[in-house]
Amino acid sequence: MPVLSLKIINEQGKILAEHSAEDEVMLVYEEEYKPGDKIILTSTEKDIHLMVQLDDAMTSSFVYITKNELIYHIPFEEKKISYSPNSFSGNIHLLSARLAANEEIGNYKNLALNVFDQHGDTGCYPHATANVETRDESVFAARNAIDGVRENRSHGKWPYQSWGINRQDDAELKLEFGRRVKINKIVLYTRADFPHDNWWKEVNLTFSDGTGIKWQLEKSYKPHILNMEEKEIEWLLLNNLIKADDPSPFPALTQIEVYGVEAN
Length: 264
What we know:
Domain DUF7402: 128-238
Shape: globular
CATH superfamily of the largest domain: Galactose-binding domain-like
Distance between the termini: 20 Å
Protein name: DUF7402 domain-containing protein
Number of helices: 1
Pfam family, one: DUF7402
Organism: Anaerocolumna aminovalerica
Largest sheet: 8 strands, antiparallel
Structural class: mainly beta
CATH class of the largest domain: Mainly Beta
Strand content: over 45%
Number of domains: 2
Helix content: under 10%
Oligomer: single chain
InterPro entries: DUF7402, Galactose-bd-like_sf
CATH architecture of the largest domain: Sandwich
Radius of gyration: 19 Å
CATH topology of the largest domain: Jelly Rolls
């Protein structure tokens, strides 16, 4: 069984707190975070499913890790406004990570959800990337589309963060799972801050198995639901985003949910 370790390090690499344990680890840190602080999660085994909660003000995430060490950069200033103001705040913090139980691994669920997704090759999945994020601002980052926050009736700082495409016609978002999964339903919450927002009347889904689906959408704040024949994939691409004929140039995506089970 893997030994899991959590530690907090500062900008200079000094260890501020740490704890290790087999199968499940918890860490209490009784100081305020400072700019440059990082959370380091290590495991003696990789290619495993974990339940991770790096802040007690945020929900836990079911993730699949492909590296022995994961580095989480604690957000500050502009990076922080896409998170709840309660997160990573105060002078006491509870962090945890554990092996996912067999029933958690086998459950039918939203396989796209990762509250703790970040930029870069994190080794932690699901992971969202895009070829554009409006002005490189945190409130328009690709990670916002898989953070579990569905509120879509405005735009900007939390809880209205979204994936913004900077008016780019060839914008696309890639969602990687890090392993093979079987999916049969996709849900989109397109941003609906009307009349500020435009909306997509059609989007395309391209899958790692070489297939694709064109999906007609409507102007709505409600979820768009696509029930589909089961596919076994490792990633999907949301692209060919066709705007509606509307004066606004600002369509955006609040959330993508992908439902299914593990392939193995």
